[in-house]
Amino acid sequence: MDTSFLDDLLQNTRHYSATKGARSAIHRTDCQGRLTNQARSPVLHSHASRPVDPGWNLPIRAAPLAVTALYSVRRSSPFPVSTREHHMPDLHWTIPVGRWSSWPATSPAAPDVGFIEPIVRRRLSTLSKVALKVAHDCVAQEPARVVFASRHGELRRTTDILRSISAGEPVSPTAFSLSVLNAMTGVFGIARGDRSAASAVSAGAQTLGYALLEAYAQFAAQPDVPVLLVYADEPADLAYGTIEDEVHGGAIAVLLDKDAAAGHVVCSLTRADEEATGQPGEPRTAPSGATSFPTQSQALLHCLETGQPARWQRAGALWHWRWDERAA
Question: Computed over its alpha carbons, how large is the radius of gyration of the chain?
């Protein structure tokens, strides 16, 4: 894989133009790198603690950290420390499902996002379009808090920004503004005129599971206001090589509503023996009767579509989802 553009950026950081656009792009990349790889890369932390030249401008100073963070995507583990060492408590919670929607990564059709203004729509990435599509299917114009989840987010757009900087080209302000992890939530809220709270979650291969937990926590704190969970992801740019537990792609949206009509999803997160984890591969049936999947999105979608239990297990953690029409 050709990663020379990252090497050039890392080695020649001091020589790039300190324009506002370039500084913002580098600082943005640092933020995304730290967000998507937080507490997972020893290289990342060693750079963060290294003394730096006080004469550098802050965003420019962050560029080596940004490149290191992006490199670390392919070699970092989804768990910085064994969960067993910290005796992770078992968690169980039930999500009331008002509506849900999904968009397959393999769909040949383009998602219909006609509710977005044309001037904004044509600047959106495919990732944002599929996320907006499933979100709109669930809530339309009703006010709702939003939890957006994505392992990589707009990493491909960010990588293009890095390539532009490496080539000495100006960075598009539009590309920068839409490269942040929560870009979709902003576009969605503006399009609907909804000022409800919105948050973004990224947690490696377990992103969807922890986003479901975050959505439930928000809903439990204020059940009178629905919470919309939106998960959308796509594989990282080929420049990063092979990534462990890579995402499957596509999008899923689930509306948590106290007046749920569709049913409930019973969720659990428990410890599991490392020996039973196995290798990623085709779906398989576990002794509990739940089908095991290589990604969390495939497991949750199986549960929603078929009503059958599904699970995802890796690195000492077992996530389990079960559909229940009568759950309290």
Answer: 20
Are 161 and 6 contacting, i.e. CB atoms less than 8 angstroms apart? no
Backbone angles phi, psi at 172, to 5 degrees: -70, 125
Give residues with Cβ within 8 angstroms of 86, minimum separation 6: none
Task: Name the residue among 71, 41, 80 with its Cα closest to residue 316.
Answer: 80
Where helices occur in 178-270 by DSSP H, the ranges are 183-192, 207-221
Give the pLDDT of residue 108: 83
For residues 22 and 165, what is the distance between their CA atoms, to the nearest angstrom? 7
Structure tokens at 3: 């990663």
> In sequence order, what are the beta bridge partners of 268?
92, 320
Instruction: Fill in the amino acid letter for 276.
Output: A
227, β-bridge pairs: 145, 256
Residue keyed to tokens 């569709």: 262
229 in Cβ contact with 215 (< 8 Å): yes
Name, in order, each residue with C-beta under 8 angstroms of 43's C-beta and a sequence gap of 6 or more: 68, 71, 72
Containing H/E element for 252? strand 250-256
Region of 180 on the Ramachandran plot (φ > 0 left; ψ -120 to 50 alpha; else beta): beta
Residue holding tokens 């809530």? 139
How far out from the chain centre does Cα 286 lie?
Answer: 27
pLDDT tens across 190-205, in order? 999 999 999 999 999 9
User: What mean pLDDT comes out for the span 297-315?
Assistant: 94
